[in-house]
Structure formats: structure tokens, C-alpha cells
Design brief:
Blueprint lengths: L1 E3 L2 E6 L9 H5 L7 H10 L4 E10 L2 E12 L13 H13 L2 E5 L10 E3 L5 H21 L6 E7 L5 H4 L7 E12 L7 H6 L3 H13 L4 E4 L2 H6 L1 H13 L12 H9 L3 E8 L2 E11 L2 E9 L1 H7 L1 H15 L4 E5 L3 H6 L3 E11 L2 H5 L1 H8 L13
Parallel strand pairs: 5-7, 12-13
Antiparallel strand pairs: 1-2, 2-3, 3-4, 4-5, 4-6, 7-14, 8-13, 8-14, 9-10, 10-11, 11-12
Helix pairs in contact: 2-10
């Protein structure tokens, strides 16, 4: 345990080491709960090591956080979709100058899932203690002969970043990345039809066309045993989508989804899509307070386009969330335009990044655009 001023921190490597009252602070965020952290502990990506940070005021737990160390050297590829000079330059830079990355936050999710502080401390105090914990982690890895190249704090809203600017982050570059796509569910929507009725004619027609294309596809909620029995096929469907994404820093382990279902039970929803009794796709949802978070999905590309499978999955996620009484859906930051076409709105997200080499860090404003893929997209408004 280390301390500065009245706050101290402790770094935990296993969930069975966590303070018994950890979940008292995690009550509003599933992604900081001990159950979710167990999932990471047991089935995190092979190139990721997770640490759990407790912030203490004297002996009282007043803050909880997650950090993730990612070793990009263990990846064969960062994503295969784009083959251009910029991509090759990005991959060269990442492999040679940014292969060891320490995240404060969760690189597998979008949104502020980095930390929660008790109302008994100020956010700037908690952030300062977290930065100290981050420095301690860098020393730990240095002693293991692993030099941390990049330190990143992510994902924060415009109001949340104010507290960072009041603390010692002057050497960090503040950056803005692709937005988080969030779908707000209106209070008077009780059924999927309420949503459809709110669409303009153009987007109602899009909805009808998509539903007609997928009329012969069966959608089914899978339990733990079914997920486990189909683990190989599920991973193949996931991996096909993941490796064709424009950018990746990790790939899930094969037991990730079955482990998720085993531990989170009804808080984790897994929907399989079947054509002629064969699974051709799946999507996953996580209940998180009043929000439904979309998680990873997969599909057979040869069927996806013809059946408009991805668009149908988005409509299904909306219908499910309305039926279950959620207030919003966190659609994350991929496929921005198609998510916009079903009604999701962009929320700007910010982070802070620092390179361990002072010279490289000085040029981070010029280097960073090469690390973050640039996505050009047009925002849509499908509602009347």
C-alpha cells in the first residue's frame, strides 16, 4: 500500500484479494463489480493482464478502479480490413514504440468504466491517487523487464475531463476519439412497435425491408450449456468480425462468452441466429443499471449482407431493451453510421495519453492521429 496526502492505494491482482465491501462502490456499474472482474480474471484476452485498484482514506475504501496492461507484441495483427500506407506506418509504430500499453479503464468497453469514487472524497483527489497507482504499476512492470510505452486514461465525457485538468496531467495529451453511440429509449415506448411508429417513412421502410430479408432466420436466447456446446463455432463467428475490424488491440479467449454467462447469469444475454438449424450469427447484451450495454457479436459474412443480419441485430437489441424497460442502450463506437440510422446519438469521449519517451511524447499531437483510425461518417436522424 502506498499513500499521498490522506489517500492511499492498493493494487490487487486477484478478485479473492479484494476488500469485502468492494461491491458497495460498484453497485451502479456492473463493469466494476467483483463478478465482472472475475470474468476478466478467468478469461481475459491472452495479451492482457488486469489489475484492480482500491483507493483508501485511512482504512476505509473510498474508490475502486481497473487497469489493463496490453502487450501488442502477442498480436499477429491489429486488424486486416484496411491495407494502406497509413496502416503499415501505424502497425510499425505500435509494434516498435507502443507495444506495452497501460490503460486506466477498460479497453474492452466504451464509456467511463475506469473508476468509481465515494462521495466522501473529491474526484480530483481520487484521480491523483489513481495516477500514483499507475506510476507504481509502471515500476512493477519495469522490474519485470517490461517497459510501459504508453499510459492511457479512458473514456471520459466533457464534464468528467475537467477534474483531470485540475490534477498533474500536464505531460499527457488530451485526445478525443470516435464517439460512443448511445440510444435513448423514450419513456412512453413500451413495445418495438412504439419505436417503429416513431420513425420517418424512409427509416420505417428500411426497418420493414430488413425484417423481410431475415424472415427465415430464427433468433434464440442461449443458456450456458448451449453457449458452451457451440463455443468453437461462436468463436469462429466472432473472430471473423474482429479480424476484419479496422483496428484491434486484443482478441477474446475462446471461453470468454461461456464464462460470462456462467458468472453473470441473467445479466448477460446471448442471442444466436440460425438458418436451417445452423448458427450463422450471434449478439450479446449486458444489463448495467438502467443501461443495456451491447457487447461483442459475430456473423457469417456470406449471409450477413443478403439477410441484412447486422441491421436486424440492432433492431433486435432495441426491441429487447424496450421490452425489458431499460432507459438507454450503449452501442459503443463501431459502425457509427448504421447505428445512427437506427436512432443512436454520438457522445463525444475523451482520454489522456502519455509516452514514456519524453522526445516521442513531445510529438504525440502529431503521432496520435496515426494510432487512431480516422472514420468518416454521416449522422442520421431517423425519427419524425
Amino acid at each position: 500500500m502506498n499513500s499521498e496526502n490522506s489517500l492511499s492505494f492498493k493494487i490487487f491482482n486477484q478478485t479473492d484479494q479484494l476488500p469485502k465491501n468492494w461491491n458497495d462502490l460498484a453497485i451502479e456499474n456492473t463493469f466494476l463489480s467483483t463478478k465482472y472482474l472475475q470474468i476478466l480474471e478467468q478469461s481475459a484476452p491472452i495479451n492482457m493482464i488486469c489489475h484492480f485498484i482500491g483507493i483508501f482514506q485511512q482504512e476505509e475504501l473510498v474508490g475502486i478502479a481497473i487497469s489493463q496492461f496490453i502487450d501488442a507484441n502477442q498480436l499477429a495483427s491489429f486488424g486486416n480490413r484496411e491495407k494502406c500506407l497509413k496502416t503499415y506506418f501505424r502497425d510499425f509504430v505500435l509494434k516498435n514504440f507502443a507495444s506495452h500499453v497501460l490503460f486506466v479503464g477498460n479497453n474492452m468497453l466504451t464509456g467511463q468504466n475506469a473508476f468509481v469514487f465515494s462521495h466522501k472524497i473529491k474526484a480530483i483527489e481520487g484521480i491523483s491517487a489513481l495516477k500514483n497507482a499507475c506510476d507504481a504499476l509502471k515500476t512493477i512492470y519495469k522490474n519485470q523487464r517490461k517497459k510501459i510505452h504508453l499510459t492511457i486514461f479512458k473514456d471520459f465525457s466533457e464534464t468528467e475531463i475537467v477534474d483531470f485538468t485540475k490534477t498533474d496531467f500536464k505531460d499527457f495529451l488530451q485526445f478525443s476519439i470516435q464517439p460512443n453511440m448511445v440510444f435513448g429509449i423514450k419513456y412512453d415506448w413500451k413495445t418495438e412497435q412504439n419505436y417503429v411508429d416513431a420513425l420517418t417513412k424512409k427509416y420505417r421502410d428500411q426497418y420493414k425491408r430488413a425484417r423481410k430479408k431475415a424472415i427465415d432466420i430464427e433468433k434464440r436466447k442461449l443458456n450456458y450449456e448451449e453457449i458452451l456446446n457451440n463455443e468453437g463455432l461462436i468463436y469462429d463467428l466472432y473472430f471473423h468480425v474482429a479480424k476484419n475490424a479496422p483496428f484491434n488491440t486484443f482478441f477474446l479467449s475462446k471461453n470468454h462468452f461461456s464464462n460470462f454467462k456462467f458468472i453473470l447469469k441473467d445479466h448477460f444475454l446471448f442471442y444466436g441466429y440460425f438458418l436451417n438449424q445452423k448458427m450463422i450469427g450471434f449478439n450479446t447484451l449486458i444489463k448495467n443499471g438502467n443501461a443495456m450495454d451491447t457487447y461483442f457479436l459475430g456473423y457469417d459474412e456470406s449471409i450477413q449482407k443478403d439477410k441484412m443480419l447486422y441491421l436486424n441485430m440492432l433492431y433486435d437489441m432495441i426491441a429487447c431493451s424496450i421490452n425489458l424497460g431499460f432507459k438507454e442502450i450503449v452501442f459503443a463506437r463501431t459502425a457509427l453510421e448504421i447505428k445512427s440510422s437506427v436512432g443512436a446519438k454520438p457522445q463525444k469521449m475523451f482520454g489522456f495519453i502519455e509516452h514514456s519517451n519524453p522526445l516521442i511524447n513531445r510529438f504525440m499531437p502529431k503521432i496520435f492521429p496515426f494510432l487512431e483510425p480516422n472514420v468518416v461518417w454521416q449522422e442520421r436522424n431517423p425519427f419524425k
